[in-house]
Amino acid sequence: MTTSISHHDIRAEGSAAIPITAEAARIAALEEELRSLRAENDHFHQILDSAAEYAIVTMDLEGRISSWNAGARKVLGYAAAEILGRSGEIFFAPEDRAEGAFVTELCRALDRGRAVNERWHLRRDGSRFWASGLMLPLMDEDGQPQGFLNILRDGSEMRAEAERQALIQAELAHRVRNTLSLAHVIAVQTLRHTDGPEAFQAEYASRLQALGRSHEMLAHGGWDGAPLRKLVEHALTPHRHGPGRVAIEGLPVRLASAAVVKLSLAFHELTTNAAKYGSLSVPEGAVEVTWSLLRPQNGRKMLEIVWRERGGPPVKPPERRGFGTRLLEQSLRHEFGCTVTLAFEPEGLECRICLPLTANVLGF
């Protein structure tokens, strides 16, 4: 009994016809399909490995890791050979493992189609990072779950920036409340120590401008304090004409935000008083502002700021204590633990402010 074998003729260019059996043609087709699948698989892996900032991990239904891209190695620190087959719970922090967070995440992904992954994870070396990503179910053609896809990245920098912004917003809200409260106190005290609406308007506006300048300095520095020299220069700028009129000397000191606001107002009051009644009220008068560190007193390091007026008309203690005097003697002492000494010497006013370094001075 003979078997008939069908065949095709494939003629190569410049050659005789070559008989190929149907089975051989089928094998050739399968080999071509295999090459196509390999090329597609290689292309798929190229895509996965190109996402170097993202950990792309697949897991089976029990949460065991089945594939691992180059980004996962970069983010989590494991080579594929040492992580495949292990539970994805290995990345979770001990406190989350104790609460069953990994299983909860898998269940949520199955129930809702996705589970947001925003939590602390562990790298291979034990260090923590803030993971930001999604857990998704992998479905077959019939819509049945076959496993999970976990895509995440290191979101530590974004989290830190979000926390910084939240802190700034909270600090800004706190400052606004304090500023409004301070503006109210300034208004009440100014009204109490001025005669008539015109005088009140002029003095209150001047003090609000000083308050505004202090906040402008803080805003330019990211609300992280300001140099003491800048406070003094801002207060005395309108009077710095002519040689020797204003002298400012001291080591570089950066004040904390709260100290910036109150000391700006203090220098404004000293400057205003000098321009009205003191050394800056006459052409030959001068103001010298210096500061230096004092030896620790009672275990506390102090910064001494000295305001000294010379060449002006004779001065004497005021008959009544106005806003500026109260600010210097009471507010600075109450808020910052300062000691303030006002000496009304015949040759000019001398004000000494001793400021504790703790919390008031950010650095030198």
From TrEMBL:
Keywords assigned: ATP-binding, Coiled coil, Flavoprotein, FMN, Kinase, Nucleotide-binding, Phosphoprotein, Repeat, Transferase, Virulence
Cited SUPFAM superfamilies: PYP-like sensor domain (PAS domain)
Domain PAC: 115-167
EC number: 2.7.13.3
InterPro entries: HATPase_C_sf (IPR036890), PAS (IPR000014), PAS-assoc_C (IPR000700), PAS-like_dom_sf (IPR035965), PAS_fold (IPR013767), Sig_transdc_His_kinase_HWE (IPR011102)
GO molecular function, a single term: protein histidine kinase activity
Keyword Phosphoprotein on entry: yes
Catalytic activity: ATP + protein L-histidine = ADP + protein N-phospho-L-histidine
Pfam families given in the database record: HWE_HK (PF07536), PAS (PF00989)
Coiled-coil segments on the chain, per record: 20-47
Gene Ontology BP terms: regulation of DNA-templated transcription
Residue stretches making up the PAS domain: 40-113
Protein name: histidine kinase
